[in-house]
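Fold it.
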Amino acid sequence: MAIPASRAVALGLILGPAELLPVSSSAHLVLVPWLAGWDWEGLDPDLRKSFEVALHAGAAAALLIGQRRVIAEELRSFDSRRAALVLLSFAPAALVGYTLERPIERRLGGPRATAFGLLAGAAAMVASDRRPQRRGRGDAGPADGLALGIAQAAALAPGVSRNGATLAAARWRGFTREHANLLSRTVALPIIIGATILKGARLAGRRMDPPLRRAMGVGVAASFASTLASQGLIRQVERDRALWPYAAYRVVLAAIVLAHLRRRPGAGLQSGDARSTPQGTVSPVGADHPVA
């Protein structure tokens, strides 16, 4: 089964703004096809996952271009303390992702688990945003890097959101909203690049049909374009805005999913939520992303 180009473009366009806001871009990649009634689970799980990672790679490329001045400024001030920050923020998520990616995919990839991840992330964001804003640009150290790394590892659970989890961790550590957002974006790129390389290596040995290659190409192009066009959303988050509106959006989206599941009790099982079979095994599922 191939991915229709129109659907690949639609998901790419959705990913851009969702990637720049703490609303879980990967939750949208899981839930939009499910709510729209697409036969998403008919796709090969590895190819579907690789398609999702490819969309995130397109978004990462757009971020590199759109935020090049901020990145250049960070690189100019890069020192051993910042190196430790980046390393500690990368290591926990890389370790957990490399060792537990498949179990997470099998058990936590469906709409019900994603909805609970959205709710958990929303609660963390609201609680952490009540902390005082007393720390700034030059105050981040190794302990902060470890906190951000643990947050990124937790974001491997569907719906939690890498952006939302790292924002919550940085605010919990007392950083201002502006600098929490900067830290969140700074530690994101190594994880995105690492996930892209890992998935690219797994995909390299597989033969893809021309329709799938075309769908992946137009999806990545749409993701790149929508992320580049949505750069202004970053400033909206940075302007000392409270995180509760994003948390509220997540709660509403989760409520829609859970209400849909109540109306159709079998829908979650058909769409990838982990479940026990009569033999006691766990059925394969789609998964949330390894970074967003």
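Residues 274-292 have pLDDT under 50 and may be disordered.
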